[in-house]
Amino acid sequence: MKGFAAAFSIFALYLAWHAAHDREASPADELPVAAALAQGASEVGAAGASAASTPMLASAASVPNGASPSGAVSGAAAAGTAGPSGGSGQEAAAVASTDDGTADLVKRGEYLARAGDCIACHTADKSRPFAGGLPIGTPFGTLYTPNITPDPETGIGRWTDADFLRAMQQGIGKGGEHLYPAFPYAEYTRITERDVLAIRAYLNTLAPIRYTPPRNDLSFPFNQRWLMFFWNLFNFHEGRFVPDPKQSPQWNRGAYLVEGLAHCEECHTPRNFMQGLKSSDRFSGAVQAGWRAFNITPDRAGGIGNWSDEDIVRYLGTGAVPGRANAAGPMADVVADSTQYLTPEDLRSIAAYLHSVRPVVGGQTRPRDQWGSPADDVKRLRGTRVTSVDGAQLFVANCASCHNWTGQGIGASSPLAYPSLIHNSVVGAPDSDNLAMVILHGVNRHTKEADVMMPAFGNELDDDQIAAIANYVTKHFGNPKATVTADDVGKLRQRQQ
Ligand code: HEC
Ligand code: HEC
Ligand code: HEC
User: Fold this and answer.
1) Where is the signal peptide, in residue numbers (predicted)?
2) Nearest C-alpha to atom 37 of ligand 1 is from which residue?
3) What are the tens digits of pLDDT across the range 357-407?
4) How far is the CA of 157 from the centre of ligand 2 (A)?
5) For labelling alongside 230, which of 194, 220, 348, 488 has CA 20 to 30 A away?
């Protein structure tokens, strides 16, 4: 017990010291994690958190709801689901189909669950949606997402609405234990009670799936959940979104979505050494599973200041803005699972808000999407015998069938086009990480508009060849300062996707 207390105080001092010095962290490039008491010892967590165990039910009633699809939900309908929901999911589903108010609530909850992209993390196997089990790699080990279907044994069927609110708004689990911030409660805390309960009402209508995800595999001390108490102290500010009366309803709606439900900052804001979000550099870019989630502040060179509102709406709605950007990797999933379902009004609100955040320069002199010119190496290559690894030859052999040997793409701006690599944000980025990742993993994006597919070359091409192609592509079609080595590609290849 003494050793325990000593370890505890040392860790607390360490955190406090770092917080005081606010040291520049080595770029933390994983989902946040923190700590946790080994399953079964959650009472210790409860001791630290007892003060927080009464749910704070205050909600900002005046949050603008913009153009949510089913409009305002009546108070009566919301109240209808506020009772204890210890029963089965079927009961809730039955209610949903007989009560018009509840049906509206469920529809609204479905929309909000999409905006919050719950399915992305809580689905490991598409045949078991929301049943969890997705491994989330962190610097401290692997977390597996829980089952959030209404199954009473393995899911959250026995959770009351108050339990659910407490998890979403305070990051506290049913047994009073601290949840890890890989669950984005640091953002979800801003969601109003009404919206959280709508999400709950929707989850209650899902088919209950009996499935127990694997146990977390975290190293000591990160398997001590109670340590999250300290993480929260420095990195978590509980509280609902407070609208800014000086801003338009549209701006407030955008802020509510971006800072809350849509949790864009989980990927686009850099982290401090504790894996908390660095609030001084919001939206200025970070690394996610080996991919650069770019700077999306309105700086003209470093960010997306040269994008129009319509460009942002189109990007989030379809994943492609010809002549600027295509969504690959984790962003392709965000578009496919979440933002493509948002109404144009909500997407415009997001654009309006993003255009208003503090611009962060980041050392660039030219926007990512303003580089490159067509190549004509194919002429030089005709009739020559290539014996070594040659970027131009590899490009013509592997990429030109779709992107054209000039790099200008095929099919112009139609939804199924093979995009131009000239004026493309990945090719013009200051480093080639995403380009190498696109070559390794391809592009796979299924939206209402199109099924977009670029093959993955990870199995066909070795690290030398991928580096040679990437360097050829950035030299001609993109930012020539962005170069990669075969070693870099090898490291990116190791990243868990
Ligand atoms: C970025 C990934 C991610 C997203 C997005 C996400 N979750 Fe989770 N969620 C997690 C992880 C990881 C945990 C487990 C945390 C832990 O073990 O402490 C979790 C835990 C939970 C829990 C607690 C379950 C339990 O058994 O303790 C609930 C409830 C929950 N999530 C609901 C949601 C809802 C609703 C949404 C969408 C609005 C959502 N989550 C979106 C990663 C995510
Ligand atoms: C799971 C991580 C993740 C989340 C969450 C996320 N993004 Fe992204 N985002 C990325 C990555 C990675 C890229 C780079 C994509 C690529 O290389 O094609 C990106 C690219 C973008 C771009 C294009 C930038 C450019 O210059 O090409 C925009 C705009 C953007 N994200 C906006 C958003 C908004 C708005 C949200 C919240 C609704 C969001 N993102 C949420 C990871 C994420
Ligand atoms: C079979 C056709 C095909 C081949 C071959 C192909 N691509 Fe692609 N490429 C695509 C498609 C489709 C997209 C995605 C378009 C979209 O997002 O709408 C794409 C997107 C890209 C992007 C933009 C990614 C982003 O996030 O902005 C880059 C860069 C790229 N390809 C490079 C390459 C390179 C380098 C090669 C050769 C190693 C190659 N492609 C081979 C079809 C192809």
Assistant:
1) 1-19
2) 118
3) 999 998 888 999 999 999 988 888 887 877 788 999 999 999 999 999 999
4) 33
5) 194
